[in-house]
Write a structure and sequence with these properties.
This protein is an alpha/beta fold. The chain contains ten helices and eight strands. The longest helix is centred in the middle third of the chain and has 16 residues.
Length: about 270
Amino acid sequence: MVAHIVTDWDDAYENGRNIPGGSGYPAAWVGPSSAFREGADARLDIAYGAGVRHRYDLFLPEGTPKGLFVFVHGGYWVALDKSFWSHLAAGPLARGWAVMMPSYDLCPDVSIAEITAQVGAAINHAAGEVAGPIVLSGHSAGGHLVTAMMCEDTPLSGPVRDRLAHVLSISGLHDLRPMLKTARNQVLGLDMQSAEANSPALKRPLPNVRLTTWVGGGERQEFLRQSALLSNIWHGLGCVTQDVPEPDRHHFNVIDGLMDPESAMLRVVLGGE
């Protein structure tokens, strides 16, 4: 076995420049997302807090929802908002789930700890609008944020955490300490104490919540490692976990499975019904 030594941490966590056509994202999602909102049964810009970005979109299926499916966007905690991802609601909606997508404040205006609290507030609010079990999903930094929801220090209220059934972290970042070695940390503002305090991999999971970490088989080695890391550690703490590297997927198209109600991703997280 050849040891893998990281010498350029910025490159290790750089996706766009290392993917053919990567510069076309996130612009490639704008049109499909806008078109989806126009045709969906959607309640847009529901306020969960006082801030301008403290809003979420709620997409409703036909009939009574089976439960609440949440998608939390990525962007390294510094970019993007809920409007880029609406089309990803198609798969859970077709399976009868309501889908919630929140925006949140961004670094450096707030800290990652504050973002985590905001995502918890959004989920708490949406849980009051939709009954039933709750499944959380998130991509990249969003994967970090949803796994933070199933840590023992979760910002979710007691009744909401009791409804939490499954968390899907897609290409998630679960140990934030490597961010200290990147130029991006000039915006994130992490130090070792805050990186450790905000790393799900260094915490204990809530009981009775399943974890699936999902990552593109063609992603940067650090994303593959971060994905396997959390499933491995939490398995040892009694959590039911699985880590799925999906072949022929990169950091930007690995989320496409959310659009397909029969995708392997949704069959794992929502069952095969």
